[in-house]
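User: Hi! I'm working on a homework problem where we have to compare a predicted structure to a textbook description. Could you give me the structure for the chain below?
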Amino acid sequence: MRYSKQRELVLKTVLENKIHPNAEFVYHALKEENPELSLGTVYRNLNSLVKNNMLKRISIPNGSDCFDGTLAEHQHLVCTACGKVIDISISELEKIRSNVMNKTGFSINFSSLAFEGLCRECLKK
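Assistant: Happy to help. Predicted structure tokens:
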């Protein structure tokens, strides 16, 4: 992948914002200091960064895809009220993956898991 100043800015914005930002967030975070930046450019660069394994895409049911700079395997909690995405690591999944591979002979390269529900703050409301 060739170097692009805009791609570098998009990547840096996602990495610095651990909230799992979506494309709109990245665009608005960069637009003031980079008035030539378009939302389409942000989407293209996010897609390119995902394709080149520099970011992970988190598909949000009934919402915008979010992006994650944490490449180590982990899972997510998605609040259906406020949209917050929280990282969680579930070590027991390695045993499940191993069982699936042993029973099926299927070689698993990647898995994703997201739990949907309400975060603490939304539960308090």
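For your comparison, note the following. The two ends are 46 Å apart (CA to CA). Strands lie at 56-58, 66-68, 75-79, 85-88, 114-117. Good luck with the assignment!
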